[in-house]
């Protein structure tokens, strides 16, 4: 018990001890007083000895009587005080003892339940957390607590080359091991058996290679395999450096149990990721079928999606909404499948009737996407996508929504959509000069575009925007040069292009941008409004 006491608890205990000593000495004093009184048969006024004494005193004078009476009264008071003190002390001692027993019992109970509470948190995470990395991070943290060890890593086996990798090592850095590596992890992955080394540096199954790489000093290690439903090894659960002693058989059992849970989760997460990937690729392909009907709009949906995701990330949109944003941006123009190509590809300004036809694509997008099984939060995808031509002042189409009636995610897509349209070559105009693009977008602030979204967009790191802008320009895209724009926001680049005074680290960036932006265009290229 004593070793679990805090210093505050120790102080309290010392003071209680002192109090107890004082009380005990007072009791002792009282006891002696009572004994002394009894020796003189002066227990009470009713006792025969006292009565006789009092009679004598009455006869022989009142002075001695008053002394005896005072003595008897004092004795009575002391006796009462003694009884009260004895009662109080006993009660306090019993209470204190009971409390200590309770605390000790609770501590023992807690010790006993510690692994179970860790397991409970793992199960809770399984029910609520879908992302594999977050799950693994919870599992490894709880495993460290349950097993009382310093490190826990979950290695996942790559299906193509058997390479074993982990990120869940507490520091977020990735470790990769070849399948044939001379490490306990490699050995467990190859044999599918538990490896428990109490003293690794005295064991030839251990290689110090990883310790040298990570700077971590391994002492004891326990590895257990993780299997899928077909009993194939899909990874290895590794725990390092047991804090007290070495890893026991009980630890092996715990780790086997946790590895079974983790294995199931990994398999489930991999299946989920495969399905999600399949859905994304399918939607991308659908979107591209529309974009590719016209070479000049090729890549539009994907670029709009990438711009929208950059803005969404900058605005801190929650992950679930980011998926709505991704799918809605990807599919926003899908309704163009219902617009005649002769109108879509027309070389020149559209007549009012043709423009009306083009406008139908937003409604068709809604109708077509509503047939796809977007469920839960994703159920918002058709609506969000179909509002992308609405304007804040209500002059957009096709529902004529105003301000807050337009979903916020749509307002992000709208900015991305218009920016891509203006910075792309169209049948009726060339790529618009970037200054003009900024001017058009600024003019739309508060009547067409949400100011918050516009600000977030122009504050984006320029290199990220340019990488999307130039992503479909093949040989003309120069990623290495685009990295030079890393410290610049898009807004600042436009200022530089407009002739703002450059800082030393901005020298030449405006010219470089113009070269990249106009690459592939005719030498006599004139940006048109
Ligand atoms: Fe559109
Ligand atoms: Fe569009």
What does this structure look like?
The protein has 529 residues and is of the alpha+beta class. The protein is 58% helix and 7% strand. The chain has helices at 7-39, 48-60, 62-128, 132-147, 184-191, 209-214, 249-291, 300-314, 319-331, 341-344, 352-370, 381-386, 408-422, 434-443, 451-458, 462-469, 479-482, 490-497, 509-518, and strands at 149-157, 164-166, 175-177, 195-197, 221-227, 233-242. Helix 8 (300-314) packs across helix 13 and helix 9 (319-331) crosses helix 13 (408-422). It folds into 3 domains: 2-112, no CATH class; 132-271, GAF domain (Beta-Lactamase); 292-518, Hypothetical protein af1432 (Orthogonal Bundle), CATH 1.10.3210. The radius of gyration is 41 Å and the shape is elongated. A 6-stranded antiparallel sheet has the order 3-2-1-6-5-4, sandwiched between helices. One fe (ii) ion binds next to helix 8.
Could you say how many structural domains there are in total? 3
Please state how the strands of the largest beta sheet are arranged side by side.
Answer: 3-2-1-6-5-4
Strand coverage percent = 5-15%
CATH class of the largest domain: Mainly Alpha
Q: Identify the bound ligands.
A: fe (ii) ion
Under the CATH scheme, the architecture of the largest domain is Orthogonal Bundle
Give the SSE string: HHHHEEEHEHEEHHHHHHHHHHHHH
Could you say which structural class the secondary elements and strand pairing correspond to?
Answer: alpha+beta
Low-confidence stretches: 1-9
Determine the CATH superfamily of the largest domain: Hypothetical protein af1432
